Task: structure prediction
Amino acid sequence: SLQTIAQTKRFSSRFNKFLLVASSDSCSVISFFMGKQPDMILHRYSSKKNEISNYSGGLPSHQLQKSIDYMQYHLSEDISLEDIAAYVGISQYYFVRLFKQSTGYSPYQYLIKCRIERAKQLMMLRQGSITDIAVLVGFTSQSQFGRHFKRFTGMTPKQFFNK
Result:
């Protein structure tokens, strides 16, 4: 019946949101619900990971991962290029050049991309207002957030939030 289909779609939508934020610790819960291999389910339903294209040259993989981890951990803070480069242990000018060579993004572009991805996750989970989410992921104003969000997603935060 139509009511059953609507209920199934609502459950599927809620379950997909649950899977979006599921971590590897949740694998047993997911496998219990689905009776499938958790890795396959997480791969299919989770948000896109911050995958790094394989460019030749650039930062060694351990330094690249270290810099990305630093950005992810300090996402809501005002991160300076100097801080990231110092954390990785190289000069900031050399870091910028190698990071872009490794990822195809400047460190600033990559940081904005990560902030937008985190904001999308929070908006799907309805974790506060758009302004709260903007501040939570490290933007200084809602207008700055809106400008970057539209550039990366093609829609305004409000359109995404109401979707």
Notes: Residues 1-49 have pLDDT under 50 and may be disordered. The longest helix spans residues 2-21.
